[in-house]
Design a protein that fits this description.
Layout (H helix, E strand, L loop, with lengths): L1 H4 L6 H19 L7 H20 L5 E3 L4 E3 L1 H27 L4 H19 L4 H19 L6 H32 L4 H11 L4 H19 L7 H8 L2 H8 L1 H17 L4 H24 L4 H22 L2 H28 L15 H4 L1 H15 L5 H15 L3 H27 L12 H19 L2 H9 L4
Antiparallel strand pairs: 1-2
Helix pairs in contact: 2-3, 2-5, 3-4, 3-5, 4-5, 4-11, 4-12, 4-15, 5-6, 5-12, 6-7, 7-8, 7-9, 7-10, 8-12, 9-12, 9-13, 10-14, 11-15, 12-14, 12-15, 13-14, 13-19, 14-15, 14-18, 14-19, 15-17, 15-18, 15-20, 15-21, 17-19, 17-20, 18-19, 18-20
Amino acid sequence: MTGLLENIHLALPEMIVLVTACLALLGDLFMRDRYPSIAFFTACVGLALAGVVSILFLGEFKTLVFHGLFISDDLAHLMKLFIYVSVFLSFFYSRLYLKERKMPAGDYYVLGLFATLGMMALVSAHSLLTIYLGLELLSLPLYAMTAIRRTNSDASEAAMKYFVMGAIASGMLLYGISLIYGATGQLDLLGIANAITANGEQHSGLLSFALVFIVAGVGFKLAAMPFHMWAPDVYQGAPSSVTLFISAAPKIAAVGMALRLLTFGLADVASQWQQLILIMALLSTGAGNLLAIAQSNIKRLFAYSAISHMGFALFGILAATTAGYAASLYYVLVYAVMSVAAFGLIVLMSRAGFEIEQIDDLKGLNKRNPWLAFMMMIIMFSMAGVPPTVGFFIKLMVLKALVDVQMTWVAVLGLLFAVIGAFYYLRIIKVMYFDEATDPAPVHLSGITNVIFSVNCLSLLYLGIFPGVLITACINAFSY
């Protein structure tokens, strides 16, 4: 028992978020009439405390806790920091949206906190059991959040699709895990890696079979092709505040799961999973960008955009080098900041009785609010990979990692798909600046909302002009 509790303080961020979720649930249940925003403020305080603890843990030695089930290292804490930021921004941007539509705001924050706890468990997992636990703890609240607007048939349909596809993906991942256990007799990722090194050739067929199911499960969580079919419908059908949440932080957790499974536990069979990742990455970046061009619904467009971005994140893992893994981590962290800003604008501009659904809803935004149009332009330039925004550097690092391992043809294809993708981002800028507004009424944001949204967007410029700190942190996360 002493050994179990020896380093329990390293799981303090998870404990803080768990306690915060419980307090928010109780506060919303018993004190909502007196303090309508108690769940929101409780969530913000808990996320801030967990963020402070994770910052303090950065740079410490890699430590295993709970008999190897849980790992505390720079990779986990860096991902957790960006998860906290993404979740906080999602909550903050959604406040008025939830209030205007009389949606159960307390349920939204509580479910979001439990999903955050699942993400944190997932990025700190050092065992197949913890990975599965974290995955389910992340997924189940997201299904409920998608259907949170019960009177909306589109949301209910999206939630059902998400739940059915998620259950199939979880089953596939669980089957792959059982095959890995059957081949190695281990659940600990380090134990699996050692067992494959020692006896991998004897069970090569079983391991190859297991990889197919594991990569399929990971691909679903990333919404990578051909496991993407849920994403456009869920992005479009779910309330914009839920789409905002789903689009950012869970992507960090999904890449964290992929990095833990493939680069820690299954590194010795990299030549086999590289082939699967190659197909998924090329399909995602190619078809994702091409299908996005055909969309008129802005949420569906961003869904296909997310698919193409996850393809780029997979390029880093495909390289199967430390530089490639660092590039993949860097990519998904920045993507979360870009995505929360893009959907944040949609949520902030949607007012009571009106939803920003179509690209044409952004027509003439420059005349209605020039500052918001400029912020959206920064987001679009960053997503397209235009310098000096940080989107240029994340794509550059991923493509450089591919060139360094003689996968130049893949890098060239990635570059070509990125150029194709720039078209629909520039189309949104054209609509904002050169089309006449259908509704000429000015768009106003409150002071604090305007400040936080501006900081969110301008950080994409700052990280592009001064990329060194974050790049170094991502490289150090893999220097073991």
